[in-house]
Description:
Layout: H1 6-21, H2 29-48, H3 52-65, H4 75-94, H5 98-115, H6 121-140, H7 144-158, H8 166-185, H9 199-217, H10 222-238, H11 243-251, H12 260-283, H13 288-316
Helix pairs in contact: 1-2, 2-3, 2-4, 3-4, 4-5, 4-6, 5-6, 6-7, 6-8, 7-8, 8-9, 8-10, 9-10, 10-11, 10-12, 11-12, 11-13, 12-13
Amino acid sequence: MEGGQWDAALKKFEAAIALRESMDWRNDPLVAWGLAAGLLNRGDALYFSGETGESLGSLDRAIEVMAVLPLAENPAYVDRLLLAWINRGTRAGELGRNDLAAASFDAAESLLETWGRETHEARRLLAAMFHSNRARWDLTRGETILALGDARLAIEVLAPVAMAPPEVARIAVMARGVLCRALAALLEVRGGTGLSEDWIAEATDATEDALALVKRHGFSGELVSDLVRYGALIYRTCQPRFLGEFVCEWLSIEALRDDEALRREMLDSLRFARAQAEARVLGAPHDDEHVARQTTLVRGLMAAEARLKAGNEKATGP
C-alpha cells in the first residue's frame, strides 16, 4: 500500500481478514483488534484507489467488530475505534453524505470525551486529526465559525507534542492550513472579521509556524498549497505590503519550486494586489502621503513578481 499498489494491497488485506474472520474473534479481543486493523487498512486501500463509497463499508465492518473490545483494558482499542469513526466521518463528508458524516464525527467526539483527548501522545494526534477533519467538513458546509473552533482545538491539543516526528508535523501543518482557510472564509462573511479578535495575527502566526515545519520536513502537495493560497488571500486583503515577502518565501521552498500551477496563482495574486494599489492612487491622486505609500507597495509587488518570474524561467529551463 505504501508503494501505491492498491490491487495487490487489497488482496493481501482480504486474505488477512479472511484468516481472522475464521478465528473466534468475538471472544478474543486481540484477534478482534487485528481483524479491525485489516478492515481499516482495506478501507484505506479502497479509498486511495478512488473507491470512497466502498471504503465506508469496510469501516462500518471494522466498527462492528470493535464493538466486542473491552475499551477500558487497553487505550489502543479506543485509538483504533476512534480512527475508524474519524475516517468514516471524513469520507462520508467528501461524498456529501452529511448526515452520516455528522453521526460519525459525533461518535468520535463522544469517545474523546469519555476516554480523554490528552491521555497519551497517540490520542493527542487522533484528537488533532478529528478536529482538523471536522473543520474541513464544516467549511464545505459554510460553517466558518464552527470550523474555526475545531481548527483552534486541533492546534491546542498538539501544542505539548514535539514536532520532530513527520507524522506529528504533518497533522500540525494540516491544522494550521484549515485554520487559515477558515480565517480567510471570514472575509466572505458579513461582519466576519469582527467575529474573531486579532484574527490577522492569528493567521500570520499560523503560516509562520507551518512554514518552519514545511521547511524542516519537506512537505508538499495540496496540504501545503492550500496554506499558501489562503495565507496569500489574507495578506492581500489585509496586509498587502507583506504579500510579496510571504509568497516569495513560501515558493523558495524546494518542495514547492516545481509547482507551476501554484506559481501562476501567486503571480495572479500579486498582480491583483498591484492593480488594487494603483486604483487606490487614482482614488486620491492629490494626497501625497497616500500616493507615496501605494507607490512603495506597487514597487514591492513588482519586485516580487520579477522574482517569481525568474524562478519560473529557472524551473522550466530555456
